[in-house]
Amino acid sequence: MLEILSLIRSDGDPRWCRSVPNWDRGPWLETVLGLRRAKGNPRPRLISSHLPIQLFPKAFFTSKAKV
C-alpha cells in the first residue's frame, strides 16, 4: 500500500520511491522515531501504522486525514 500511495503522491514518478526508504516515506506512527519523522515530512504526509483503530486519538476522526 505504501508503494502505491508513494507513486500517487509523486504523480507516478518512481524516482522518489527508489531513492527514499520506506521508513522515511511512511514512518510508523507508533514509534518515537517514526512520529518525529512523520512530523518533519512535508504535507501531504504518508504515515504507516498497525495500531487498532481504538488507540487512535479522537482528533484523528474529525481531521481531514484519509485512511
UniProtKB/TrEMBL annotation:
Its EC number is 2.8.2.-. One of its GO terms (molecular function) is sulfotransferase activity. Gene3D superfamilies: P-loop containing nucleotide triphosphate hydrolases. It comes from the Eukaryota. It is an enzyme of class 2 (transferase). The keyword Transferase applies. Keywords: Transferase. It holds the Pfam family Sulfotransfer_1. Belongs to the sulfotransferase 1 family. This is Sulfotransferase. It comes from Thinocorus orbignyianus. The gene is Sult2a1.
